Structures are given as structure tokens and as C-alpha cells.
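=== Structure Prediction Worksheet ===
Name of assembly: unnamed complex
Input type: mixed (protein and possibly other molecules)
Chain count: two
Listed entries:
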Amino acid sequence: MTKILNVRNLGKIYTSGSKKLTVLDDISFDITEGDTFAIVGPSGSGKTTLLGLCAGLDRPDSGSIELCGVSLTSLSEDERAVLRNQKVGFIFQDFQLLPTLTALENVSVPMELQGSKNASKIAIELLDKVGLADRRHHYPSQLSGGEQQRVALARAFSNTPAILFADEPTGNLDEETGEKVVQLLFDLNKDAGTTLVIVTHDLDLAKRNQHILRLKGGKILVDENTLVS
Amino acid sequence: MSNNLGVFSKAGVRWLLKMAWRDGKASGRRLFLFMASIVLGIAAVVSIQSFSDNLKQNIALQSKALMGADFIIDSRQPANERVVEIIDSLGGADGREVNFASMVAFPKSGATKLVRVRGIEGGFPFYGKLETEPLSAAKKYQDGGGALVDATVMLQFDLNVGDSIKVGEITLPILGALESAPGDNAISSSVAPSVIVDYGLVQGTGLLQKGSRLEYNYYFVADANTDLNKLDKTIDPILDAENADLDTHTSTSQRLGRRYENVGKFLNLVAFIALLLGCVGIASSVHIYIKEKLRSVAVLKCLGATRKQTFLIYLIQIAGMGLIGGIIGTIAGLLLQQVFPLFLQSFLPFEVQLSFAVQPIIMGLLLGVFMSVLFALLPLLGTWYVSPLQVLRVQEDASLRSRKATVLVLSAIMLFIFAFSYWLLDNLRFALAFVAGILVTFSILGGIAVLFMKGIKRYFPSSWGFLARQSLLNLFRPNNQTMVLILAIGVGAFLISTLYFTKDILLAKATLEKQDQSPNLILLDVQTAQKESVAKSITLKGLPILDNIPIIAMRMQRINGRSVDDIRLDSTSTINQWILNHEFRVTYRDSLVSSENLVAGEWIGSASPNTLIPISVAENVAGDSQVVVGDSLVFNVQGVLMNTRVASIRAVDWSRMQPNFSIVFPSGVLENAPQFHVLSTNVPNRTASAELQRELVGKFPNVTIIDLRQVLVIIEGILDKISWVINFMAFFSILTGIIVLIGSVRTSKYQRIKESVLLRTLGAKSAQILKITALEYLYLGVLGSGIGILLSLISSLLLAKWVFETTFVPSWVPFGLLLPGITILVLLIGLGNSRSVLNSPPLEVLRKEGS
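=== Predicted Assembly ===
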């Protein structure tokens, strides 16, 4: 099977004044194409930092990351942006929809960045899939939290990403809405055959993935294969 | 890169435009302040620019009508043989005129008035027309033996057609009211309005005698093929030697154009300051706007947009708003310029036809886009450096910008301000001084804001009550707006109060000293033979003779051994031309007077005629003729040459309303030369003045009387109109200042509201929140406006000393009215922002403001 993400000896240090704080230390793991993968750990364990690095949002201080066969450390800021646009999808805890764009426009943006001619048409189809086609002209402020996260789901899949990173996707939702969103996420992921990486502290959500990476104090505690166990 | 990723994503310019539009239309409300700043600034600049352009065009178009001929030859004396030869060689004059200032009397009321009598012969004006009421009077006056009298004078003295006017020794019927005539200057006309008579009648007035300040004009109509410039260049130097001059309609209109251009430049500068204030508004509004957009920028970057793309989306948006602001501002400016003629018409010698000039329109639009982009660049840079990591709740300093980029943008801004002011002023030194002035003002204001914040931090009054402490804390906490607010308030207060002080200086300069013994009635052209009788007429009325000054007319013959003719021909000579052509009116006396100070040499009060005569020259004459103490000057007094040496150089306060002289001879030399006299007196009131004038005009028709009180009324009228225009422009600055202020206060609105809501949640009462907010804005208002006014006081003192060369007693108005006024305004705007906190439940406020 092809490795879509290859992380080797990754380290990240934040400097605050004269103090140095090691957030990630010697992290190595692989993710195979099509897998679902959860990164769990307590607050401050470095989960979000790790996700940011894997998605090319930040540069590591040591080690290497290879995403879709491309070494991220060798890319410039703009090259990483293009890579994200072509290969990566995102879902965030606080939805991160563009407030001045309608639901339809929000979903269209990643496709428009690729120069797609059918962005609107595909966006409507995706909104239909998440049950919000009739609210496509609404602005984020006119939608509920659950609805906003469903629009975010549609947007995440709009550029047919090879890998999708989800950062605490249910963190800002109530249990019932959260469950619905998660179900939708896994369904869409299955249909698209996308690799899914979820950062969460919700162990139930983590257990629905094929792999779980447990972090503590910036180090890997356990890298377990739930299917094996 | 070894993969198939391009450096740029495939979305092109269309997508950028689409995103800019999508985002912009949902953010319209937030960009309102930005638009308002642009619109006001552009409107101010375009209105002035367009009006100046129209004025220039009007002058060029109406140049012939303004002169009434294609060219004229003028002289202060009747044409001598050589001049007559030249006139004949040009085919003879098509018309001629003699004019002079004189007192006239109106027998109907017995009133007298200083006028300019114009005796005209031939078909003048050949272009334009004498506008009279009735219309036929303009044609009739040359054969009807009557006079055309200035329409305002007719109204002032309740005169009608058919009434009579006494000019010198003749009395003429008034044939019509003169509305306008080519060759009349609006400002001098307000002091000495025109009375037009037939040339043949002038001799009979008995006023054409030596000592009178006469001007002879010979009018010419040229063939269509005549090259007027060439004519000017060949004939004028020859005429100069004969104390005559040739002016073409083009050169005169150019000179006139330049004069109005100078006024236009000053107003333009005031407008530019309004625009600069608007730019502070732009920077401040865009700062808020971009701050609110940084999260969206991070999301876009996450989704794959490059730094360039996200930067361009907002740049396009700002440029678009700048263009719209420029369009609205330009339209507003073009409409506004229609107001100017209402107030400025009396300064202009012609009716201004307003049209829409292309240059100001293009300038308005370009300026809108360029200024917006330039002043938005600094906050816009934030989009370039914002990290996509922000979407993951990782806090990074979004204000991190490259130092190089910031320096570059700031340099571009300074360069632009310099380039634009240079374009407006056309003077490198003034443009540099303007930029330096702006830099100094901003630096002082900014420096004081920093010092203030550091001062409070260091000497924080811990013993103060909670409310006072809390409001002080607000001034230096993170994300504070102290600097921006003090800059905005300070610059606004500085401008308004400087304009006020300048007006004060100008008006104070023109105010007569109210002492009883200072002259307020000046009698010119008193002949030697008349001197005793005139003095007697005055003293018999119980009035004092304050001055009895002899005046001798003379011309320069040689400067340091070189004849003026030689100097004229020497193209390398830097001696000012007027020195060579001027008829100096010189006096003699044995002592200095109160308006004079010796700056070099030694004052010599008396001398004998047979020696080298020690004279005193005024600083400006010494400078223009390039002489120093010890140099020799030869003067020609009606054919007699006087050898003199410069014994002293004097500083003369020309602004004093009294007879001042550029050249003073010692006693004992000129007593027997042909001379006339200037007498002055002090009359206690208007009635006494009118009575004396009536008597003097009756007995001595050649004597010209200047009533300084009337002159003062005229000067005040002129200054009133000028100050209206200045106030009008200042209004733009004030309005823009208010918008900047609202923008700056709004910048910190959400931050403050969040804190107020928190206090509210913790149980703070409305009155407490209100007091904290009020105190905070009170500090800012007092500090900003106080420093602004103090700075303006310093700049006005410098202006008074170096530019207006006068003393300056500051008025209390800026301190008594402006300071509290601006502070209250700041307070109201600040409190207005917090209204929602006081009226609504905390959560509702946060939801509403956060959306």
C-alpha cells in the first residue's frame, strides 16, 4: 500500500523570550492511503501542532514530512499553499467559514482556486449531500453551529483531497449534532476514499478510526492499530 | 519541485476580482468610514484644483478682453520723441488713455471720493466692452461730454444718470453707471473706483500737472500675423530705456494667471492637508478592516490561496473603494467649485465661466485610487505575513511585518507627499518645508503619545479610585489606540487652530493703531505753493498737522559707475529690473522715523549740495540694486544728476499705514528741487473727515486724499472674503478630522465593548462603565487637542515672525473654545460607541458585535 504521509524524527520547539518549550519531540509514523487515523492526547500534548505540521501549515524545527510523495520541508510557503489546495482538505473545530461569503461561495472557493469551471455546480451537489442545498445562499452567521460544520464538510471534500485533516471536528457542537456531523464525515470519506486524519480528545471518536496515535508531552505514547487490537 | 504542482494556483485575476467583490459587498458598512475619508479629501482637492484650472483657462480665453487691446505701451510720463517714433513705426496707436488717482466731488450731496480718472480716446476697448447702464452710455460718453461713474460709487452716493460729478476744475454730467471696463483691477478698484471721461476733457480738469501720478497708455490692435512675443522681445528693451513699457495681452494674462495661481496654490495646500487627514482616516479604517479580515486570510491560505492572492484580494478591494470614493469625491468637488465664484467674484476682473476641466477629474480619480492603496499598504501588509496556523488556534503575532517592507511603504508615503506638494507649489524649498512640517508635527504628536503612555505606566497613580485607574489603564493596555487617537485629534486641532491664528495675524496686521495722534487722513500731491494754504485749512478746523513730508521724483542713472542703460543690456546682470525703470519718490529729513531701523552704516542727517550726498536706502532696494554701504548711486532729478553714496541701510516696516520711503536724502540738498508734499492729520470722526475732504477738494482739486479708515474697511472686507474661503477649506479638515476620529474610536470598539461587557457581567453599573469610558476619552481629548493647539501656537509664532514679519498676540479662542469643543466631541463619539453596552444584555452585545 502507498504511504500518503511519512513523518520522520519530527521536532518542534516554541521560544517564548529566553525560554524554549519542546512541543514535539522525535515523532515518526506513516499513514497509508485510504486509512482513517486519529491523533489523541491531553491538552498541550502537541496534537494540533502535529496536525499543522503534517498539513504544511507550519515548518518543523527538525525531522522531515513527506505528504503525497512531496517533502514539505523543501517547499516554500506558496508551494505548500498550492499543495494544500490540490491534495489537502480541512475541517476545523470552529468551522472557519469565510463570514462574508455565502455557504455556496464557501464551498466553491477551493475549486475556484484550482481553476475549476464547474465549481458552483459541484458545490451545490456537495451541499445537497450534507442536506443544505436549500440554504446555499445563506451567510455563516445565518446558520447554526451544526449547519456551519456541514458546510465546512462540503468545502473539505470539494477539491477531492487525497488527505483530509480534521481538528476537533465536534469540539464546538453538542453531542447529538456532533454525532450527526461525525457520521456524515465518515460517510463522505468512505464515498470519496480519502485518507482521514482526526485530531481529537474524544476517545469514542478516536476508536472509530483504523489507527490511533496517542501523544503525551510532545512524544508518542502509543501508535496502535485498532483493527489489529 | 519534482512534482506537478505549479508555484501559483490556477485561479486567475477574474477569481481575485470575484473574491474582492464577494467579500467587499458583505463588508460595505465597515468600509463606509474609509469611503467618507476619501470622498471628503478628494472633494476638497478637486474643487480647488478645478476652480484654479477654470480661472487659468478663463484668463487665457479672455486675455484680450481683459486688456481691451492686443498690446499696449504704457509710461508714467507723456510719450517722448523716441516713444512717439516707436508708436508711429507700429502704425500709430489705435487708442490712448491717461489715468490718475484723484478726488472727485458730487455736487448733489457735497460728498467726495478718491477715484481713478481714466481719460480715453479712440475706439478703446477693442476687445471686450465697457459695460454700462444704460448701455448707450458706453458709446455716448466720448461725444457727450460726460462721465461714466463706477456703479458701486453711484449706489453708495445715491447718484443717478443726469447728476453731476466734479473732476478737478470741471463739472460733468453723469452719463451712465460703469459696471465693468477692460483694464480695471478688482482690488485696486475697490480703493479707487473708475470714472471714465473723454481724453479731450482731461486737460480741462487741471489735474495733469507735475507731481501727479499719471499713467499714459497707448492701445494697439495687431494684425492676425503679428508675433506678439517677438514684438515684446524687440520693442520692450528699447522702451525700457525711455521709461516706457510694452505689454501684450498674453504676457499680461500670464502675469495675472500667476497671481491667482499663487492664491490657488495656498488653497490647494489647505485642501491637501484635508486629504492627508483623510489618509490618516484611510489608514485607520483599513487597519480595523484588515484586523477583522486576518482570520479569513488565514482560512484562505489554509485552503490553498497564496500570499500574493490573499494580498491582492484586499488590495483590489481597497483600490476599488478608492476609485468609487474618488468618483464621488470628484463629482462633489466639481459641484462644490460652483460655490467659489459667489465669494471670490469681487476679487476677479472678469466673470468666471465654470466648466469641467479634464485634469482635475483625472487627478481626483487617480488620487482616490493611489492614496487609498498607498495609505492602506501598511495595514494590508498584515495579510501577507498572517500565518495559516491561526485557524488552528495557534496564536502568532499577526502584526509581524518585515521591517524592510514597512520602511519601504513609509518612504513611499513621504515621497508621495513630497511629490504632490511639489507639484502643487512648484517650489522645491516650500515642498520640502511642507513635508518637514508634517513630519515634525506627526513626530511630536506621536512622541508625546508614547511619552504619555510610558509616563502613566511608570508613575501609575495606584492610590486613585477604581474608575479613574481603570480608565487610565485603558490608555496603555495591549491593542490600545492612544497613539492613533492622539495623532488624529492632535492633527485636527493643530490645523484648525493654526488657520484661526493665521487669520488673526493677517487681520491684526491690517488694523489701524487706535491712538489719537496717529495719522488717519493722508493728503498726497500737495504742491509747494499750496502747502501753506492746505495746512491752514486743516489747522483752522482745530486738527493737527502730523506729517508734512516733501517728495521729489527721481530715477536711477548709474549704479556704482555703470549706467542703467548698460545694465539693461547686460544679460548677466542680476540687478532687479524695477530699480532701473522705477520713478523713486524720495524725501529728505534729518532723522529716522518710528517705522525705520538702521541695519548698516551710519545715519547722516544733513549735507551740503556740493559734496557726495550721503543717502539712506531701504533693505529691499539695497538688495535689489545690489549695493552695500559705501557704494555710489547717481540719480536723475528732472535732468539734474545727483551723485550720492549709500551711507546707511534701513529696515522699513512697510505694513505701517504711514508714508514710508525706500530712499531718504539728508536735509540741505533737495530743498530747492521741484517737489510736492504729503500732509497727514488725524480726524476724530467720519463727519469731520467728510467735511475736511469736501473743503480740500473744493479748494485744491489736485490734492488726493486717502482716508485710512475707509481703506481699512475695504481691507477688512477683502480679508473677510479670504477668510471665508480659508474657513471653507478648514471645514473639510474638521469634517475629515471627525471621521478620522470616529474611525479611530471604532478601531478599539470591539475590544472596549468586550471589556465593558465583562465588567457588566461582574456587576458594574451603567454609571460606572459610563464614567470609565468618559474619563478615558476625556484624557485623550484634552491631551490630543491641547498638544495640537500648543503646536499651532508655536507654528503661528514662527509664521508671524518669519513670514508675516509682525508681532503675534495669541487669541484665547482656540484655548477657550476649540480645546473644550474638540474634547467634548471626542467624549461624545466615545460614549456613543459604548451605548449598546449600557442598553443591552451582555451576551446579546457580544453576539451582535462579534458577528
